[in-house]
Amino acid sequence: MASSSAPFMFLALTLLSSFVALTAANLYQNFDITWGDGRGKMLNNGDLLSLSLDKASGSGFQSKNEYLFGKIDMQLKLVPGNSAGTVTAYYLSSKGSAWDEIDFEFLGNLSGDPYILHTNVFSQGKGNREQQFYLWFDPTADFHTYSILWNPKRIIFSVDDTPIREFKNLESIGVAFPNKQAMRIYSSLWNADDWATRGGLVKTDWSQAPFTASYRNFKADACISSSSRASSCNSSSTSWLSQELDTANQDRLKWAQKNYMIYNYCTDTKRFPQGLPPECNTS
Q1: What's this model's pTM, rounded to 2 decimal places?
Q2: How many CB atoms lie within 10 A of CB 266?
Q3: Between 237 and 199, where is the model more confident?
């Protein structure tokens, strides 16, 4: 196992990228608001970012940098009250027809009903790897930390340092894995009432607009892609590049999936009558 992974790690670490550790950096330094005609705002001297949605438009932002592997944290406070029909998306994505993507999407709901946290992984343009969760807290009452650990061996989704999902690199059995394309961070707040809440049965109540989601405390320990120079991530100082779930976090992952997972593509035999995807048949 070790000998077969060495060339892979060498390839991953010698891509056009350089290591940077960003600690709770000012949002002005890391993000651009890209659409929404003023509905996206930087506040408190760049310590807070808000996105708003009304009947005319939503809003969104993207990172100034592209990343190829990293540990990325952001604190979000979601749209409160009747958020049915709205989606707050927070994700990594590359460009092109064979894009890679790592998704958090928060599907709004009627007041008193829980948000649904929707996760997905795309590799070379292929997704259909949805897992969905309820949360064990009210994500609109305060800020909570949503994290993506992405290294050459695995992707781990976490909420407040509790892992909820792991997607392993299984290229050895023919499953594509995002490891060659740098990705930007994107986020948007938009109207998706044709599908977001109860399959589109519940529509957005525009009398509740504007809807607002807030962001703070961004942190990225990551390899920043650079086309101008060939440098490598320093694996001796980046433990996340080889990080995996220890026994305690494996137990926390099992707890989250047992108690809060509400959909798993790997158990949806009706959706895949010809057989589940190959990654679903590994332990």
Answers
A1: 0.90
A2: 15
A3: 199
Q: Per the residue annotation, which of 105, 166, 171, 279 is the catalytic one?
A: 105
- Whole-number Å distance between alpha carbons of 117 and 131: 8
**Rounded distance between C-alpha atoms, residue 18 and residue 28, angstroms:** 21
Pairing of strands 211-225, 48-53: antiparallel
Comparing CA positions, the residue from 76, 30, 14 lying closest to residue 185 is 30
Q: Give 96-145 pLDDT, tens digit per residue.
A: 999 999 999 999 999 889 999 999 999 999 999 999 999 999 999 999 99
- In the set 101, 166, 171, 244, the catalytic residue is 101
101 belongs to the catalytic site: yes
Contact assessment for residue 5 and residue 13, using Cβ atoms and an 8 Å cutoff: no
CA distances from 4 to 1, 8, 248 (A): 5, 8, 28
Q: Looking at residue 2, what is its pLDDT?
A: 42
**How many angstroms separate the CA atoms of 250 and 142, rounded?**
26
